[in-house]
């Protein structure tokens, strides 16, 4: 009987991992199934562009996985039962139960409303492609003169505000943040950021945490009212609750607690990658939820799964955190490097050159996902016997 591997989620981490596993493991020994709510690979890092009205390329997962032997199931994950090693999914045809021997959990993160009243009812976000497209439709209805308030002063908020301001100059864009806008940046980068906001005409409200969202206003904790036609919530991300609800060991924020090989500490047949996993970087601090975590955590999980099945030594991947890359529209950006303590370094790459670098990074990431078997050796590893796997698992 083939070893059944299920990958939940086909974002950057999930799609990349599934393709590499299919390349490295022999098809006579394993059966790989990818479960994803959408039929396409979505470049989540570009959702703010879609919201602004830009058309992004479609990348159907059926084409991405063509020729790999991977089975694609377009469905929503409803429930996970790690004790019985089953996944319950839902699609337009109904419900289904999938069984696995190894699970790769890559469901990523979702918007974090922080329990603020009215966010779910009245605010838009760009955490998913459907949400970004709904925001686009709403902005189309506004026309020139519409008022948009972006809530959140970190990367997503900054990128969303500047993208909307550049693509839709007729809108009146404002941003509210609980602290200083770009306060974590070095002085040089922060000055550039503030000049960019001034150039775009974006109104900034610092130290203005939002305590309630209504249909036509956002109210700060101190009672200040920001009248708006559209509120865009970009105040952070949270792990999907499915992991915590399943009984997997998780951290306080819902991320799955894993060992150095990306295995769940409570259920070692479950691996977690990307935003779903709680990982300590080389600097001793948790990796932030970002695309930067997708690559190294995926490589580590792949090595762990392949090594466990084939008997190959499991190499350890480093988890570096080198900085923040922030787009400011299509022609401007900031690349802020950080030191070993995750503090901003004095220097930064700014302007058009930083924008070109970020564009190159996005294209490379998308190409890697769309070509999962490129750049790897043609030989696929055969699985060891079940007895050998048991011995290695007990010794690990």
TrEMBL record:
Cofactors, names only: FAD
Keyword Flavoprotein: yes
GO biological process, one term: aerobic electron transport chain
Biased composition (Basic and acidic residues): 384-396
Disordered, as annotated region: 372-396
Xref: Gene3D superfamilies: 3.50.50.100
A GO molecular-function annotation: NAD(P)H dehydrogenase (quinone) activity
Domain of life: Bacteria
Name of the protein: Oxidoreductase
UniProt organism field: Glycomyces albidus
Lineage of the species this protein comes from: Bacteria, Bacillati, Actinomycetota, Actinomycetes, Glycomycetales
């Amino acid at each position: 009987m083939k070893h059944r591997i299920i990958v939940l989620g086909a974002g950057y981490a999930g799609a990349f991992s599934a393709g590499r596993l299919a390349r490295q493991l022999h098809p006579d020994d394993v059966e790989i199934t990818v479960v994803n709510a959408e039929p396409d690979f979505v470049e989540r890092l570009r959702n703010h562009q879609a919201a602004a009205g830009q058309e992004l390329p479609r990348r159907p997962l059926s084409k991405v996985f063509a020729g790999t032997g991977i089975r694609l199931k377009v469905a929503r994950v409803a429930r996970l039962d790690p004790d019985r090693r089953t996944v319950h999914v839902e699609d337009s045809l109904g419900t289904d139960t999938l069984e696995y021997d190894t699970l790769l959990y890559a469901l990523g993160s979702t918007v974090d409303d922080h329990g603020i009243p009215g966010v779910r009812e009245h605010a838009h976000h760009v955490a998913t492609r459907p949400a970004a497209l709904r925001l686009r439709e709403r902005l189309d209805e506004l026309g020139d003169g519409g008022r948009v308030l972006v809530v959140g002063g970190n990367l997503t908020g900054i990128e969303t505000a500047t993208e909307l301001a550049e693509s839709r100059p007729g809108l009146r864009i404002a941003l509210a943040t609980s602290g200083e806008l770009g306060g974590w940046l070095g002085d040089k980068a922060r000055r550039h950021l503030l000049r960019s906001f001034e150039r775009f005409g974006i109104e900034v409200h610092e130290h203005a945490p939002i305590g309630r969202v209504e249909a036509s206003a956002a109210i700060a904790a101190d009672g200040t009212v920001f009248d708006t036609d559209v509120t865009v919530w970009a105040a952070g991300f949270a792990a999907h609750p499915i992991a915590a609800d399943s009984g997997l060991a998780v951290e306080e924020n819902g991320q799955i607690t894993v060992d150095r090989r990306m295995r769940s500490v409570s259920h070692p047949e479950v691996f977690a990658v990307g935003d779903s996993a709680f990982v300590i970087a080389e600097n001793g601090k948790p990796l932030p939820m970002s695309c930067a975590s997708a690559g190294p955590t995926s490589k580590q999980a792949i090595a762990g799964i392949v090594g466990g099945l084939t008997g190959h030594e499991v190499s350890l991947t480093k988890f570096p955190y080198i900085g923040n890359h922030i787009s400011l529209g299509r022609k401007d950006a900031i690349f802020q490097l950080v030191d070993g303590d995750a503090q901003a370094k004095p220097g930064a790459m700014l302007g058009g050159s930083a924008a070109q670098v970020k564009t190159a990074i996005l294209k490379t990431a998308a190409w890697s996902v769309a070509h999962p078997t490129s750049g790897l050796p043609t030989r696929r590893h055969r699985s060891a016997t079940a007895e050998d796997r048991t011995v290695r698992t007990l010794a690990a």
